[in-house]
Write a structure and sequence with these properties.
Distance between the termini: 13 Å
Mean pLDDT: 93
Number of strands: 11
Strand content: 25-35%
Shape: elongated
Radius of gyration: 23 Å
Helix content: 25-40%
Strand order of the largest sheet: 2-3-6-4-5
Structural class: alpha+beta
Largest sheet: 5 strands, antiparallel
Number of helices: 5
Low-confidence stretches: none
Length: 204
């Protein structure tokens, strides 16, 4: 399993006129269907009165076949959303959404023409899209004494961990997300530092 994948780090908008119809293609970071729906609401407000607002999204890693979706929004079945999704999947980029706005110009394009038109702006946008590498991290937790906290935080930072919560009682509970490849290294460093007293608890 890959431990990282590319995600968009900025949005891109491509505008084209194809046989008198205006197509506006937006590509953006999208980590959930809810995020896609928010973007759709914003785009409908930004480009009111369009005939179609078609979309596709991959809300997880590029190879994830579950957290995906698409919509033809009134265009002939399979002529917009599915080709858009296929174009995104071919780019091998995760957490990506695409919305294409169409203002109909009076000339029908046919299913083949629509497939090409809805894919065109996305293909151009993907060439311009800025990306960054996302490390896949897994949940973990650790309980330590107060005097150990500074050293623990140092080791967590070196292991590219993201601390998500700290709870201070008689001891300190630290919840964090860690790339899998650093699990054994972190376990060993903490054991050495604490003479075997500290052991992180990994969910996976």
């Amino acid at each position: 399993m890959n431990e990282s994948y590319l995600i968009p780090s900025a949005s891109v908008v491509i505008e084209e006129e194809i046989k008198h119809s205006r197509f506006i293609s937006s590509l953006f970071h999208c980590s959930s269907e809810q995020e896609l729906k928010c973007a759709l609401t914003n785009i409908k407000a930004q480009y009111p009165g369009a005939n179609h607002y078609c979309y596709a999204f991959i809300a997880n890693s590029p190879k994830n076949g579950v957290a995906i979706g698409s919509s033809d929004d009134g265009e002939p079945a399979g002529s917009a959303g599915r080709p858009m999704l296929a174009t995104l999947q071919g780019a091998n980029i995760g957490e990506i959404g695409a919305i294409v706005v169409r203002y109909f110009g009076g000339t029908k394009l046919g299913v083949g023409g629509l497939v090409r038109a809805y894919s065109s702006g996305i293909k151009q946008g993907l060439l311009q899209l800025e990306t960054e590498l996302k490390l896949i991290r897994y949940p973990a937790r650790l309980v330590c004494d107060y005097h150990q906290l500074k050293d623990v935080e140092h080791f967590l930072a070196r292991s590219e961990a993201l601390v998500t919560d700290k709870q201070f009682t008689d001891k300190v509970l630290i919840e964090f997300m860690l790339p899998k490849r650093f699990q054994s290294q972190l376990t060993q460093e903490l054991a050495t530092m604490s003479q075997g007293g500290l052991r992180p608890d990994f969910d996976i």
